[in-house]
Amino acid sequence: MALCLKCEKQIAKIDDKNPKIKCHGCERQICVKCSGLLAELRVVFLQSPTLKYLCPDCEFGVRQLPALRKLVTQLQYEINELKCKQNQCTSLEVMISEIAEREKRSRNVILLGIPESQGERTYEPVSSMTLNKLILR
Q: Which SUPFAM superfamilies did the record assign (predicted)?
């Protein structure tokens, strides 16, 4: 035996005197007297299995759905914005390191026609006279 979700009395079985209705949302049972349906609607509801009844709690929840959908959509938009900002930050870090690397390389001099050293490379500043001698060779 089930309890009516509103009056909390036991609903014995479906009979003509006190039929029961099941909420389509939460599947709790409610007696027809507590359902709030008009007499004409009760007859139609009990005769038609395709009609769906929602208890006051579920009806309130259904009314909240548009606001909840809007909130979910807004939160998804904000999440996507944060992801874009994170990607931009990563891109900025890459760009900054690339700019720093280019800045270092901008002071390099490329000499053509001079064999590369086979030993360990040392990066010592070369005087302009030595550079001129190498170039004029």
A: FYVE/PHD zinc finger (SSF57903)
CA distance 9 to 27: 17
Its domain, for residue 8, covers 1-54
| In a shared domain, residues 41 and 70 | no
Q: Residue 63 carries which side chain, given as an amino acid letter?
A: R
Domain assignment present for residue 4? The answer is yes
Q: How far apart are CA 76 and CA 126, in angstroms?
A: 58
Q: Are 45 and 53 in contact (CB under 8 A)?
A: yes
**Is 48 inside a domain boundary?**
yes
Alpha helices, H only, 1-127: 32-35, 39-47, 56-105
User: What's this model's pTM, rounded to 2 decimal places?
Assistant: 0.41
For 13-71, the pLDDT digits (tens) are: 555 555 567 788 888 887 777 777 766 666 666 666 667 778 888 888 888 888 999 99
Q: Is 124 domain-assigned?
A: no
Asked if residues 60 and 25 have their Cβ atoms less than 8 Å apart, the reply is no
- Distance between CA atoms of 19 and 12, rounded to whole angstroms? 9
